[in-house]
Specification:
- It is built from two helices and two strands; from the N terminus they run αββα.
- Helix 1 crosses helix 2.
- With about 60 residues, the chain is α+β, with helices and mostly antiparallel strands.
- The chain is about 55% helix and about 25% strand.
- Strand 1 and strand 2 form a beta hairpin.
- The mean pLDDT is about 90.
- It has one domain (about 5-60).
- The chain has helices at about 5-20, 45-60, and strands at about 25-35, 35-40.
- Strands 1-2 form a two-stranded antiparallel ribbon.
Length: about 60
Amino acid sequence: MSSQATKQTTDAVDDVLELARNAGLLVTLDGQIGREKYQSVAGSLTSFMRFVDALRETLVADVPI
């Protein structure tokens, strides 16, 4: 994978995690081995549904995540 593709993937992951945080989900870093991060996302079903709604709005608006 090229460095630009890696950056785009990292940016997309960061954007999705930001949506999760904004919805009220807890995102924790469980560990890191080399460049690979292991993260967990936890929260209530209400927060999860807010995340789903935010993701849908992003996809419908055709905004890059």
